[in-house]
Amino acid sequence: MKADEIRRRGVVELAAALDAGSLTSVEMVRAYQAAADRIDPQTGTYLSRFDDLALAAAEQLDSERAQGRVRSVLHGIPLGVKDIVATHEGPTTAQSLALDPAWGAAGDGPVMARLRAAGVIVLGKTTTMEFAIGFPDLRLHRIDDSASEAAKPFPLPRNPWGLDHWPGGSSSGTATGVAAGLFPAGLGTDTAGSVRLPAGYCGVTGHKPTFGLVAKNGVVPLGFSYDHMGPLARSAADCATLLNVMAGADPGDDTTVQRPAEDFAAGLDRGVAGMRIGVARSVTVDAGSASDAVAGCFEAALDALRAAGAVLVAVQFPLWDELGESCFSGLFAEAFAWHRDLLARRWDDYGVDTRRGIAQGALISGGDYVQIQRLRTLGRRRVAELFQSVDLIATPTTGTTAIRYGADPDRAARLRTLYTPPYNSLGLPAIALPMGLADSMPASLQLAGPAFADAVVLQAGAAFQHFTDWHLATPPLW
Amino acid sequence: MDDEPLSLAADVLVAALLELHGIAVPPDDLGAIAALYPSLRRRMERIHAVDCGDGS
Known about the structure:
heterodimer; B: mainly alpha
């Protein structure tokens, strides 16, 4: 199989080719590495690459396959891994000078260990926002060739659809890598939208699972009760395939929930005929926070779901603004708890925006934090009532497409365009699906469901991608 | 809640809160964090305004 063909295929297709003997893992790894040699200097996808280790792993997995031992459907599939997730190949930096280099020295956490046992290959660690928080701090990055910026240590992630645009964050490199064909899938984390936002801005698919479904130990925490680990890939089917391995309780993460094993890929071909999808326009496209172009893509996406047999009904999403705002306030408080001692010792080693953002957590009082938790409890109850009348809720993932680097950083206005944080406050499953191009940049559909209805969310995502082909689009940089 | 009357007090408050946690903040950072304080309080006031009932 030619390298270009490998790079265009998703996990499920590549697994089928491996099974059929028309492809080897070594061929795949070499194709992705060659693409990264050419493209990564432009996209800033990787913080570190493990070329030799990845090739050795591929040879081992090809050898096992030749002997009839196939570990899982992911046997021999290469991934990119966000650099706040520990892996045994190398250190984790969280894209920060402040993190102790010994953090993560124990190697794979439980999810990474599950994936490894299933046969995945780690091509490298991908760029993020420092400690997975906020927007890019241009003081930390090299954005031009000026000597004054040249000493800054981390690459600036760039959007393959427009290199002068932010790819979204904080799972930036994983999204750019999938979009640019540097790997077929990867791992991200999502505390206020950090899987779905970069997936949306880069035109790939990203799934934030239900809170408690996927263990998050072995990941540098941001807000422990808002953090989720999730897959980014070319399709909902690929996300389901990864989630099948990633899901499961772990004694090292008290927030995980013991549940019977579930096959998230089993119902992907069931479609959306008869499915009731609530459309939450009043808090998104009708709230003045979406561009006309994104709103147009959203209406076209709804038309596609309707044509596929879904029943669309307008819904009023309760406490939307409050749940979004409480996500940021709550995660700042939780982040401050984790970072407090590190901030005291290494203040100057943090990026300016990161330390100022996390320090806000000290300004949240005990009473504030308790009220945030009370609101989340009320929100879960009210939204569960809403899900009595609909199976899923649809919104755009964001109200605008990716911002251009150097654009006026009006953060308050920018935050209002993110439709992801309420689902972190609620812990509900949500998927970001490419739904077209708005002004030449990707727009994204978000479908969310009730707790532990990840299979339904993925089923609807797969149905949408059966009737549309936006997830197959490749960026100009290829 | 109004931004202006809070701005001076926020400087002092932010410095004190961070100092309680053993964090000494340079003046530039202190001013920037203090400038965030009014909007943070506004967000929190909106959250406190929600009647969450007596059950939680």
